[in-house]
Amino acid sequence: MRFLPLVWRSLWRRKIRTIFTILSIFVAFLLFGVLMTIRAAFSLGVELAGLDRLMVIHKVSIIQPLPVAYQNRLRSVPGVETVTHNTWFGGIYQDPSNFFATIAIEPEPYLGMYPEIHLPPEQMKAWLADRQGVVVGKDLASRFGWKLGDRIPIRGTIYRTKSGSYAWEFNLVGIYDAEPGFDKTQFFFRYDYLDEARQNGDGLVGWYVVKIKDSSRSQEMAASFDELFANSSAETKTTTEKGFIDGFAKQVGDIGSIMMAILAAVLFTMLLVVGNTMAQAVRERTSELAVLKALGFSDLRILTLVLAESLFVAMFAGGLGLGVAWLIVRNGDPTGGLLPAFLLPSRDVAAGVALMAAVGLLAGLLPATTAMRLKITDALRKA
Amino acid sequence: MSWLTQIGTVTLLSLKTIPRRAGSSAVAIVGIAGVVIVFVAVLSMAQGFFNAMHSAGAPDRALVMRTGADDEMTSGLSGPQTDIVKQAPGLFRDGQRAIASAEMFVIIDLPKRSTHTAANVPMRGIEPTTFQVRREAKIVEGRMLTFGTNEVVAGRAAAGQFEGLSVGSVVKAGQFTWTVVGIFESAGSVAETELWCDVRVLQGAYNRGNSYQSVLARLDTPEAYDSFKNWLTSNPQANVSVRREADYYAAQSVTLTRLIRTVGFAIASLMGIGAVFAAILTMYTAVATRSREIATLRAIGFNTFSVLISVLAESLGLAAMGGLLGGALAYLAFNGYQTSTINFQTFSQVAFAFAVTPALLAQGLAYALTMGLIGGLLPAVRAARLPISSALREL
Q1: Of the candidates B203, B238, B273, which is a domain's last residue?
Q2: I need a surface site. Which of A117, A356, B79, B99 has the fewest CB within 10 A?
């Protein structure tokens, strides 16, 4: 601790160099934070998906509907807690490029199954009282400036109303918030309204979500559901919600691995720059270090001094970078709704801190050992 | 000595001495090369997707869907509606036969090769006229399907990206099994991600009766589009919307291309800032190690401007090397790399190849030179301002 001022002074020996080293590391970790966020966004909130929730979809593909009668048959399977169904509505608000998910659900069982969705009780009451009511995510409401009480026109792409038109209207009765990482851009309305008002698709729903009592039995429960409907006209395929989202994220592509490759390239480059600068800084001070040694500093102390210097630079600059990344991410998705789950996972923050320490140590190690092994006489003579 | 020769001499000197500063120069080169690789790679991904979507549309083809439908997935046309479409003027006719294909578009789950997880593979029911409508499509392996049977032909990209699509294999979708009898190519377009089968068999398999989702029509000439469209949209019985095939696919590529480009530019510019700092550090080091040399030059009469230019030239030289290296590596590593992603409009997979185009390489090089210029500026000013007497005394 006594030698902190010494470390501090040598750090500012060449101000410009230190500043630019700090800036390089700062940028690298800013990038780290942003990339990790994007990666998490592309994996579509997999971490949050429940293992006790199973998705029952049509075996051919999720776009094929299932009979609504399956709900009671699923309910009768022992070990099942709740069964609800969702129906993809494919609605468009003003323009197709304003894409967001429009889904017909059963309000009570659905919200019961997803405790990560927070809807004020009075808004829930209003929803149950209004068949045409809709509840939207906080991010979606702020994207289009919707307020409670607004009437929202939506153009259907799959379902027509009884009058044969594709024009649908909903009353905004609730705005939900949710746990971090849960998609807050969804548009939920009541299935009973859809079923009553639609001309086509009678008695058909999109897919089922089943909450089971014991998540460790998810595999056998899934198999038993599929067996139930085997050889019927609509066979099913059941997966855990996590497996389903994971599979869907994989359909988007190898975005995750591309991000990791980029990150590796950045960190490698950064390590080179910082390592080179550190080495340069130590080389310049050869005579000073020799003097310290001549004064009686031990080899270990010299090693510590040099390492402390590089570690300080890495941690300070890296911490700043991650902090700014966190601030940017907190501001929300810059692409305007293309990446619904936009947050910096705390696991990645921890990884970032570990990485900073590693960069600091690795960059300082070579010059530090060189400094430690310095022969006093050689070093003094060189100067 | 003239002004220009001065600049030339000093610049040459600093460029010639780069090998003496190999270590720190390499850092700048590698840093800039890294940025250029990422820049070119991400943009070539966007470009590849764009190419796959855009090469799908021929100027003399029109896509007919239900009024209000934005994609084939949500469109629906009855048999009589498609018959009306086939009577429209401007449609290319082979004798009495209208060259148009009434089609169905569904998706089936097939495992993706890279992840072994299920992916939404588009399956298109076609009519026998298809190959006269899509003239770029041709069977390259096996044979064409026999209409009226459960046979399919798979696109080249689909066969590469998904499991179990080689000639002779059997695809199970629900209770139906399809036999793959051939592989087709379609000029690298999005169609190559699809499976094609007889539309009438597909109608039966999906209990669709006599209904379709779209009609792809070949026109007499690209100019015949207007009369074709006007006739159909003014016919109340038809109740359809008409668009050029090219516009349809272009609209579908907008969202994803924008997403990739936004992410790509954001990452590349952040990385660029980092690389500029690396270049600044390198050039400061270069100036610092050469300070006595520079002071000597100044002492024997070289002016400050030529010193400034020489440092900038060195920085630009390093950046150019980094840019070329990065561009070459990106080309070798990514050009033609096959991958697939999901098209959110139709909820189905699109396979595409990364396309590293000359324009992208030029952009990468320009970006590298910009980084070099910015990185060299401050150190160049410092070199030019070096006080001669103290710099000579130093060391």
Answers
A1: B238
A2: B79
